[in-house]
Amino acid sequence: MDRTFSWVLQLLFACAALALVLADDPIPKTPAEKLKKLLFVENEYDKTIRPSEETNPTTVLFGLTITHFSVCDATSRLTVNGWSRFNWEDQKMRWNPDNYSNLKALHVPYNELWIPDVVLYNSAIGNKINQHGTTYSIVYNNGSVLWVPPSIYETVCKMDLRFWPFDRQSCKIVIGSWTHHIGQIKLQPWENWREPAIMIPNDEWDLVNVDEQLNEKKYDCCEELYADITYTLNLQRRSEVYKTLIMTPVFVIIIISLSAFLLPTHAGEKIVLNSITAVIITYLLYDAGQRLPAIASNPPLIVLYFGSCLLMTAIAFFESTLVIKISRNYGTHPLPPFIKQALSGWFGSLILNGQNSQVQKKANDEELSSKGQAETSTLEFNREWIMFASAIDRIFFIVYFLIYLIKIISFYVTVL
Q1: Which string of b and e fits 154-189 if b means at least 16 CB within 10 Å?
Q2: Is residue 227 within 8 Å of 186, Cβ to Cβ?
Q3: pTM for this structure?
Q4: Peptide bond into 57 cis (omega under 30)
Q5: What letter would DSSP give residue 277?
Q6: Given phi > 0 = left and psi -120 to 50 = alpha, else beta, which region is 10?
Q7: Mean pLDDT split into 10-residue runs, the chain, 416 residues
């Protein structure tokens, strides 16, 4: 019994010794694990401290590749999806590759390193200043750090919709350090870093070009200068669809409006055509109001055009009513002599083209021969008033034609 207990006790001691031996000789670590332990644990790395000495600024290179963008007219906002590219030197992230199996690069989560607080200055989403994705960064043995996170920049863009829908817009993206002045972070643009092949085109806008500029500004809060990189996106709206949706109704309005003046003076269809024109213009104004934001200044020229067309239609509606009333109810009174004289001269021949008055005179003469002498004066007066109503229609036709022509020419010259 004692002997068995002795053997069990010796076995337990052997197991304990083996456990101690294994504890002193753990599973071998990879070169990357050893390097990370050296950099972050043994060197006591502090990610909240800028890696350069206090007297030397940290040079941060920044580049932006745009993969997609969208513009919201209603909220005057530009949203840019892209890849931000950061590069700086971290003096605490240096090692000899020969000591770590020729390991020259280490992939590190971004939240374990010092990251420059470079954010979007003109953000449109308030306190949500973190525009960058949570991706890994690459640390090289010479201390160089490369971080390329996917980013979303949503900015306020002042929209000038005066020439809508043929407008061009310039929107800015201002990138800079939030708390470090130029003596601490020296922000520099990353030259010639563009990858247009990865960009997804916008269905409504064309990106004409992107201007890049480095600025140094002094703000009221601080005495030091702060650097920022301003990207100016020059955009051109694609107007092919709007030419069909908007410009085609414009010509329809002109044709219907002018056609009302060519109908006979007594035709009630004049009122119908003007009413149809007013309905079309009102709908176009409503549709434009749904597409566009409420603008206090510089309203779109096309909206002003529709508004003036609606006013002209109202005037034409009144003119048609007056012409119908004149041609139907003024046969019992003679035409004023000065109007009759004007219509009988060169002005009447020019306006009525001579042919209209002769046709009406011939018709009335035939009617006069079949009626008594008592009705002669009434028919003659009626003919004169019809001529006067026709002259009003022709004058309004010429005036409206010239106004529409001037409007279209001036609009295209101004826009194009």
Answers
A1: bbebebebbbbbbbebebbbbbbbeebbeebbbbbb
A2: yes
A3: 0.73
A4: no
A5: H
A6: alpha
A7: 55 55 54 82 82 80 90 86 91 86 88 89 72 86 91 87 86 90 88 67 87 86 86 88 80 88 82 90 86 73 88 90 77 59 55 49 47 54 70 85 88 72
* DSSP β-bridge partners for residue 77: 72, 156
Q: CA–CA separation, 323 vs 373, rounded Å?
A: 28
User: Could you tell me if 229 and 187 are in contact, meaning their C-beta atoms sit under 8 angstroms apart?
Assistant: yes
Q: Say if strands 118-120 and 205-218 run parallel, antiparallel, or are unpaired.
A: unpaired
Structure tokens at 210: 């992107």
Cα–Cα distance between 292 and 295 in angstroms, integer? Answer: 8
Q: Report whether 139 contacts 113 (CB < 8 A).
A: yes
Token output for 259: 């056609």
Residue type, 178: W
**Residue 100 tokens, joined:** 């770590």
* Calpha distance 169→377 (Å, rounded): 68
SS3 293: coil
Sheet hosting strand 168-177, strand order edge to edge: 118-120, 168-177, 225-237, 205-218
Structure tokens of 168? 């061009």
Phi, psi at 152, each rounded to 5° = -130, 120
Residue 384 is predicted with a pLDDT of 67
Closest CA to 218 of 228, 204, 209: 228
Write out the DSSP string of 330-349. -TTSPPPHHHHHHHHSHHHH
Tokens 């031996």 sit at which residue?
Answer: 21
Which tokens in the block code for residue 404? 């529409």
Residue found by looking up tokens 């502090």 in the block: 46
Residue 165 has which token pair?
């829908």
Helices 301-329 and 376-415 sit at what angle, rounded to 10 degrees?
A: 170
Q: Which DSSP helix (H) or strand (E) runs through 397?
A: helix 376-415
